[in-house]
C-alpha cells in the first residue's frame, strides 16, 4: 500500500541551473464518475475514465535557478499572453505539492500553456492542464534524481496532478484509467490513477467520443463546489456504494465487450451524477433543454438502428457521444443530420480514446 509520504524525496543527486520542457496531456471522460471527495483530494468513490486523444493541453515550462527567498516565483502565460486569473489556482497547486517537490522555491518558472480545443467550449481544461504541468515538474525532478524509473515518474505525476484537480490524475498514463481504492481493481489507489489492469476487449479499441457543445459558457457550478455538495447529501452513501458496484460491472464489461451492458452503466452514471446535483442543497440543473433533446434523439436512433451509441455527461450541459470506431460513418452522419442543430453555433469536437501524456520537447 502506498502512502503519500512515499512521494517525499530524500535527497537529490544532481543539479540544474536552467532549462525547459514541453509536455502535452489529454482530457479524459469518466464512465464511472468521481463526485464527492474527502480531505486532501481523496475521492469518496473510485472512478474510471477513457483518456482522450485530441483534446489536450500543451505546456512549456521554462525554469532558472534563483535565490530561495521562501516564495514561489512563476509567470503564467496562456497562448503566449499573461494570464493573471489562473495564478491563484497554480499558487494553490504549488503549495499543495511543495512537500513532494522541495525544489520548487529554488526556481523561477515560466509556464506557457495552450489547449488544442477552443477555450470557450465548456470543456474543462483543469484535468489536462494539471496533468501536463505535473509531467513537466517530474521531468525536472528526474534531472535532479536520475535514478527514478519512468514508471515511478508517471505514478508520482498522477499523484501530483490529483492535488491540482482530482480527475487530472486520470490524464497521465493509459487509455482506460482507474482512480480510487476498489477491491476488484489490482493496484488501485486513492492517491493516483492506474491503468486498467486487464486486457480490454477489441470492441473498445479506438472507441469514439464526439463532444457536442451545447453550452460553451462558464460552468454554472465549479466541480469543486459540486463535490462539496456531496457532504451531508441525503443519497451520498448509497451513491458511493453504487459507484463501487458499477466499477465491478464495468470491469467485466470492458473485458467481455458487451456493449449493451456498457451503455446501461455509462448512461446511468451520467444521469446519476446529474441527479446528485438536482438533489443537493442548494440544487442545480446543469442540463439544458438541448441536452435532453440530444439524449432523446440518441435513444431513438439507437432503437431504430441497433447501433450501440450512447452518451455521457460531465458536470455541465455538453454531451459526450460514445460509439465504436466501426460505426463512425453512420453515427457522424446522424450527428450532422440530427444533433448539430442542438449545439451552440453547430460546434462539436471529434475525439477518441488516446494514451496519455507525451513529452514534446526536452531541452
Ligand atoms: C463530473 O476533477 O474537476 O468530471 O478535484 O475539485 O478539481 P476537482 O474536481 P474535478 O471533478 C470532475 C468531476 C466530473 C466527473 C469525473 O471526471 O470523474
From TrEMBL:
- From which organism does this entry originate? Flavobacterium luteum
Keywords, comma-separated and alphabetical: ATP-binding, Lipid biosynthesis, Lipid metabolism, Lyase, Nucleotide-binding
* Listed SUPFAM superfamilies: GHMP Kinase, C-terminal domain, Ribosomal protein S5 domain 2-like
GO molecular function, one example? ATP binding
The reply on keyword Plastid is: no
Does the keyword field hold Lyase? yes
- InterPro entries, per the entry: GHMP_kinase_C_sf (IPR036554), Mev_decarb (IPR005935), MVD-like_N (IPR053859), Mvd1_C (IPR041431), Ribosomal_Su5_D2-typ_SF (IPR020568), Ribsml_uS5_D2-typ_fold_subgr (IPR014721)
User: One GO biological process from the UniProt record?
Assistant: isoprenoid biosynthetic process
Please identify the protein, giving its name as recorded.
Diphosphomevalonate decarboxylase
Annotated Mvd1 C-terminal domain residues: 211-338
Query: Where in this chain does the record put each Diphosphomevalonate decarboxylase-like N-terminal domain?
Result: 25-186
